[in-house]
Amino acid sequence: MEQVKKVERKFAEGYCFKKIFCLFLIGCIVGTYYEEILMLFEMHKWVNRSGLIYGPFNPVYGLGFILFVVFLGKNYKSRPWYINYLLSCLIGGATEFGLSWFEEVAFHAESWDYTGYFLNIGGRTTVPFMLVWGLGGMLILYVIYPWLSKWIEKIPVTIGNKVYPIVLIFMILNMCISYSALFRQGMRDQGKEPITIVGEILDDIYPDTYMQKAYPNLVEKK
Fold it and tell me: Whole-model pTM?
C-alpha cells in the first residue's frame, strides 16, 4: 500500500495577507531606524522618527515597501529591469506625494516639505528622491523581498499563527489611536473644542506637549 506523503505546512506561505503584513511591519521598523540614524549623523542627536505613538513604526516606509511588493512583486521577473525601475520611481514618488497631501488635509500638518529643493513636485516629493525610491524598489524586488519571503515562511506555524493576530490587533489599535490623536491636535491648533467624549479623552491623554515629543518633526500647516 502506497504511503501518502505528508505535506509540511508553512507560515504565510506564498503570496498572502499574512506575508504582506509581515513585510509591512518590517518596513515600518527598518524605515524608522533608517531615518533616526540619518538624523543622528545630520544633527548629532537621536530624534524620534516613528510615525506612530507606540513603538518604532513608520507606516510611510511600511506602506512603500508593500506597495512595491503588491504592484510589482508577483511578475517582476517577466518585465525588463528598467521598466521595474521606472515603475518603482513612480510608486515611491506617488506614495510620498499622496501621504503628504493626506497629512495636510486630515491633520493640518506636515512631516516634510521639499519646497526649494531641486525639481520638487509641489513640495511633497522631488524627482531626485523619486530616483532614489526607484533604486530602493529594485533592491526590494530583486534582493530583499525574495530573501524575506523565504525567512518569513520559516517561522514555526504554531508560533506564527499565535503571534500574528496579536501583533495585527496591536498595530490596528496603534494606528487608530495615533491618527485620532493627530487629528485632535490639528483641531486644537484651529481652536476647535472636542465634540465627543473621545475627543476629550484624547485631549487629556495626548496633549500638545505629549504630541510634540512623539512627533518632533511635525509642523503645523498654516
Answer: 0.82
